[in-house]
Design brief:
463 residues
Length: 463
């Protein structure tokens, strides 16, 4: 698969590692499979040194790094180093020109040599380094703590910090050569993770790729979530249990705690950690304070994780018995509803911060709650709601990932619901339909605001 996106990240690495500038200390982190190593290698030249660390004790790790360094500096192979500082300082004596040393999977090194961040701190602070030093890691928790915690030695030392995130959906269609509808279906399974895209590319269709990569104990992604949690040194039993419970439909904290057999307060730290790692997200109704709202809902944020806990975990016994056809039948039966959840989220992303229909919109979210009417309270829900930057308009949206709808009927119901909102009475209401397919009454829907998959993909990327 071709290397896609990462233009800003590449430009930043090239800028900071420019040989015409003084040596720099650079940090790159992000979850496994996002292409961090590939990204770094694209800016390294033949004079640079790339080292992939492993889970080895400190002396073995030093010997392995020394072997890599000896390819460029043969004399270093004959030196005896019993400490990291000696090895890294010795490099200065061999450096006749500026080069870059990349220590990939740096958390493995720190695991067995906890003094290493302090060693690097002293080297950076001394301003004596003659080479660029890049550290990279898949353990988001450890990397963030080392770099962003004020109590840690490396806090404030990095000249550049690259937090590598999933690639926007627009590039998935480009990579797999899929139409907009298929792109959203593919994204709902693989998300923005380029390694998953590479795996998908090996198969002729989505169904075949799911079967080959997940529906066997020997499949490459069969234990993927567990590996991701181990990368971040998280308690896998607690994390996997939380994800499974949320995927099964327990989205409120009280429901999650009940299903887990735990007190809600005992789960807060784990939930917050999963949110910090971008595996979960917390949703609150539009207009409510994140700190004060008591209506929080927890959703799986990562598409592959969501697919795994929605379809794979409930079918582990069948997968273990080789019942691929039966499992695939379950996936196909629930796939439309499953994609619909991700379609809604993408629609909200498409609206957030963008200019549409003459207004620039703030953060879009769902809204649900009760509205008091003369006849009594009524519960309502909106898939998309956002306020304009000037506070004068309110966008309300209905999302459908189904067969062609009657747009006129959907619009009428949406407007009628919006008219009941007390906080929308003094605002211009902008109703929008987000549809998978053109409506059945397409000829009469010309004046209706409708966004289709191609529009949402374009807007979600920020164009």
């Amino acid at each position: 698969m071709e290397f896609v996106d990462r233009r800003e990240e590449l430009a930043e690495l090239k800028r900071v590692l420019n040989p015409d500038t003084p040596p720099r200390f650079v940090v790159v982190f992000g979850r496994r499979r996002l292409g961090k190593s590939t990204l770094i290698k694209r800016v390294l030249s033949k004079k640079d040194i790339y080292y992939m660390a492993g889970d080895f004790v400190d002396q073995v790790q030093r010997d392995m790094l020394r072997a890599s360094l000896a390819e460029k500096f043969p004399d270093i192979a004959r030196a005896d180093f019993s400490a990291w500082e000696d090895l890294l300082v010795m490099l200065n004596t061999f450096a006749t020109e500026q080069f870059t040393l990349c220590l990939d999977e740096f958390p493995y090194m720190v695991k067995h040599s906890p003094e290493l961040p302090s060693v690097i701190q002293r080297l950076v602070d001394s301003r004596a380094l003659k080479y660029n030093l890049v550290i990279c890691g898949s353990s988001q928790r450890m990397m963030q703590n080392m770099i962003l915690s004020q109590s840690e030695p490396l806090y404030g030392r990095a000249h550049a910090i690259l937090d590598i995130r999933p690639i926007p959906i627009a590039f998935l269609g480009e990579a797999l050569h899929t139409d907009p509808v298929a792109t959203i279906e593919e994204y709902s399974v693989w998300g923005g993770v380029p390694r998953y895209w590479e795996l998908r590319e090996e198969y002729s269709g989505l169904r075949e790729a799911i079967s080959a990569t997940m529906l066997s104990p020997a499949a490459v992604l069969y234990d993927e979530p567990k590996r991701l949690f181990l990368d971040d040194m998280m308690a896998t039993v607690q994390s996997e249990s939380l994800m499974s419970v949320v995927a099964s439909g327990a989205n409120r904290l009280s429901e999650i705690a009940s299903r887990m057999g735990r007190e809600a307060t005992a789960l807060s730290a784990s939930l917050d950690r999963l949110i910090q790692m971008n595996y979960l997200r917390r949703e609150i109704p539009f207009g409510e304070s994140p700190r004060k709202s008591k209506k929080s809902l927890y959703r799986i944020n990562d598409p592959m994780m969501d697919f795994y806990y929605t379809f794979i975990i409930p079918n582990l016994s069948s997968i273990g018995r080789g019942r691929r056809s039966a499992v695939m039948a379950d996936i196909e039966a629930g796939f439309g509803e499953y994609v619909g959840r991700h379609w809604e989220h993408l629609c909200r992303e498409a609206v957030s911060g963008n200019t549409l229909y003459g207004h620039r919109w703030g953060e879009a979210s769902r809204w649900w709650g009760g509205v008091k009417l003369p006849a009594g309270p009524v519960s309502m829900e909106f898939d998309v709601m956002a306020e304009s930057a000037d506070g004068k308009a309110l966008l309300v949206g209905e999302c459908k990932w189904t067969n062609p709808e009657i747009a006129g009927g959907l619009l009428a119901k949406l407007i009628e619901k919006a008219s009941r909102l007390p906080f929308g009475r003094d605002k211009e209401i902008i109703p929008v339909l987000f549809l998978k397919n053109p409506p059945r009454d397409e000829a009469d829907a010309g004046e209706i605001r409708i966004l289709y998959p191609s529009d949402v993909i374009r807007l979600a990327y920020g164009e």
